[in-house]
Amino acid sequence: MGNKVVKRIGLGIAAYMLFVVLVMLFYKGDPNQMEWQDREQYNRVQISKLEAGMSKQQIIDMMGSPDISEAKSVTDKVVQVMFYRTERKKSDGITTADECIPLLFEDNQLIAWGKDTYQQYLDL
User: Which residues cross the membrane (predicted)?
Assistant: First the structure.
């Protein structure tokens, strides 16, 4: 009887491990459904993976919808800035630009990101 218990425990552990591996391999978390603390951490990690020239759609696929977005036309180009929240400064339920990292796009291509990026957008 003791041998059966050990086998069942072993089978249960193996099934659990298989479940964990499958979740890790196939589950893609939706950043738009995350709690704000998880989303901020997620955004910080994803921002560290950015590369100049990435498309706006690649960024949205990777990071989800931006918290704030602005766009304008400059001569023959479309310039857009998207803000992703990375730190809470005030517990008021409102996300503001100073709690976010701005990502600057020109004709849907990422050209800059970081704290000074919004000023670059305003100067265009």
Answer: 6-27
